[in-house]
Design brief:
This protein is α+β, with helices and mostly antiparallel strands. The strands form two sheets. It has a seven-stranded mixed β-sheet with strand order 4-5-6-7-8-10-9, with helices on both faces. It is built from 14 helices and ten strands. The protein folds into two domains: about 150 residues, Arc Repressor Mutant, subunit A; about 160 residues, 3-Layer(aba) Sandwich (Aminopeptidase), CATH 3.40.630. The radius of gyration is 31 Å and the shape is elongated.
Length: about 325
Amino acid sequence: MDLFSKTGKMALGSRLRLLTAKVTEDASQLYALYGVELSPKWFPVFFVLTEEEEKTITEIAADISHSQPSVSKIIREMTAAGLVEENRKAEDKRQNLVSLTEKGIAINAKIQGQYLDVDAAIEDLMVEARHNLWEAIAEWDFLLEQKSLYRRVVEQKKIRESKEVDIVPFKAEYKAAFKDLNEAWISTYFTMEEGDFKALDHPQEYILDRGGEIFVALYQGEPLGVCALIKMDDPIYGYELAKMAVSPKAQGKNIGYLLGREAARRAKELGASKIYLESNTVLKPAINLYYKLGYQKIVGHISAYERCNIQMELDLSTY
């Protein structure tokens, strides 16, 4: 069975390990072919020490992108094999300088022919191949340094799961979720205030009957996120974005962003040119979300909430 044709890219790590195992096995045989007493895993350390007379373990670890414990273990093995020695000339013993022994220097002279032959063999392999693996490895290494595979998978997970989110208008059956989700986050960070009780206990009278709207995010049919557009009697702002709450178990599904986008779309559809909101800077994920949605910080408005320490607006001309 061709495992990798069935698993696809899911088995990237396994396939790379298999390829590495093939190359490492050949490397061991190559060292024997040239009479070089060297283990493949020692080579990066060995090569670094051939470039400079002596180095600390910390410097070697940085050069080869290994951990210090890993390099220390290799140094111990190479010391036992008589290839390196520590603190040969170090005045400060804490520096733990490492250098090649005479045996190690002799191996470096011996291995030069192997370098030439291996380089030529790999060049020949690249000519036969349709893709330049050497350049691809360098490119992948750079790209994964910029954004790890873990982060890329998290992003794709969010995209996939967000497609399963439905933003629907408020119904009486969602009243409990609207209240519970908001009460949970408010009570965690602050104290429920008069305006909270009005909006959460009486959403129909306080929000909907006054020209506002409430949006509910359903994930697999369960209401896991909510937010409201509250109609404002203001010459600049048509609506206030308020009472946005997302269940902790829905984190990573982009629900807050989807709610914010739908609220902005609907407010513009209703004729508003700007949306206003109030928040608190202790809610860093929420503030970051608002900036991502396009909101900008403003000052000068009087708030009915004691917890408000930041005010923001969204120019709907950008939507």
